[in-house]
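in:
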């Protein structure tokens, strides 16, 4: 390519950048106008709803359907997520709680779902996130609910038994674990490896192969593990890219997770039910009598109505010894006729049903 051709392409890119800037600014002004209209239409005592999960899911899905490349759908949706995040912040910045400290995978999940323009707040425990949402101190919370390698996050499931919280969305995060070291680490003498218990479990085979004699120390979070390594010369941490960047560590070995498809699913919790987006999930808790065939009877309405179950977990009930509740996720919105029929049948044959919420299926 000649210098003249290259210069012509640069001029074209500059022109396109100018148009993109104008269009983003126009979109931001529209967002401001939406906020003004919402505030003007409020009745006395009402609170404006600026963030609409179902609307954002519909926008992102439409963008991905329209995308013709060369950027892939995930990258294009990520760009639009950030534009929407910045525009929403002009209406009202969202306050979002996540399991901290900074640099955890929960932090990364919060930013993936809401974009960089939210006010993200670090919480020390999952139950604390639930309490902050219930009290109205934050708009939403982000909590891990299951990992593709290690299964359900029981602290999250148990918190749903104790709090009246609505699930408003979900986000799936591809989990890459790295072995991180600090400037002072003597890599040939690593005797201690810090990480969250889940991460240590997800890298068990790799650790057995490369550091079989190193002490594995479970800490509150991967970010906490990264912090500890800074002051020690014989230790390393297992954490992700975000923690490495935030705490100034070097990736000594990358992508050490035992399963290449290792992912964690997070739930977005809030206080308001979410209208249907057209591609939704519903989560419920069901308690049944302790009798033969109880679970089989519970699942029959799903089969008869063609409703797709995506997950079922069992947890001890708080109502008595050796009694259990079922956490069930399935496709569809609670306002869908077939789903309504399923829920009515389940209510009639169980000892209790709690609808945790219907919400858009993860787009990214």
């Amino acid at each position: 390519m000649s210098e003249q051709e290259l210069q012509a392409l640069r001029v074209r890119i500059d022109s396109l950048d100018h148009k993109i800037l104008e269009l983003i600014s126009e979109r931001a002004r529209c967002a401001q106008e939406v906020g003004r209209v919402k505030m003007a239409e409020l009745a006395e005592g009402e609170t404006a709803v600026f963030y609409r999960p179902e609307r954002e899911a519909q926008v992102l899905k439409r963008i991905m359907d329209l995308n013709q490349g060369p950027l892939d759908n995930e990258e294009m949706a990520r760009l639009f997520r950030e534009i929407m995040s910045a525009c929403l912040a002009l209406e009202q910045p969202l306050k979002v709680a996540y399991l901290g400290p900074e640099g955890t995978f929960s932090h990364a999940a919060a930013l993936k779902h809401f974009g960089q323009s939210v006010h993200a707040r670090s919480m020390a425990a999952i139950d604390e996130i639930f309490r902050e949402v219930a009290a109205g101190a934050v708009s939403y919370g982000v909590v891990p609910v299951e990992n593709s390698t290690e299964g359900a996050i029981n602290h999250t499931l148990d918190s749903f038994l104790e709090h009246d919280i609505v699930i408003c969305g979900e986000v799936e995060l591809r989990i890459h674990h790295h072995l991180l070291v600090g400037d002072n680490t003597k890599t040939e003498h690593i005797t201690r490896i810090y990480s969250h218990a889940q991460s240590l479990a997800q890298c068990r085979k790799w650790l057995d192969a490369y550091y079989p004699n190193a002490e594995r120390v479970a800490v509150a979070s991967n970010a906490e593990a990264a912090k500890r390594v800074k002051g020690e010369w014989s230790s390393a941490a297992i954490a992700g890219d975000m923690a490495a960047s935030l705490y100034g560590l070097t990736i000594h070995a990358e992508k050490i997770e035992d399963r290449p498809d290792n992912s964690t699913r997070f739930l977005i919790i809030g206080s308001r039910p979410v209208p249907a987006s057209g591609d939704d999930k519903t989560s419920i808790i069901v308690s049944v009598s302790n009798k033969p065939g109880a679970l089989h009877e519970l699942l029959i309405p799903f089969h008869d109505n063609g409703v797709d179950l995506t997950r079922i977990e069992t947890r001890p009930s708080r109502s008595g010894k050796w009694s259990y509740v079922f956490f069930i996720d399935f496709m569809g919105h609670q306002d869908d006729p077939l789903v309504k029929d399923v829920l009515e049948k389940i209510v009639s044959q169980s000892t209790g049903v709690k609808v945790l919420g219907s919400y858009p299926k993860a787009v990214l």
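note: The mean pLDDT is 92.
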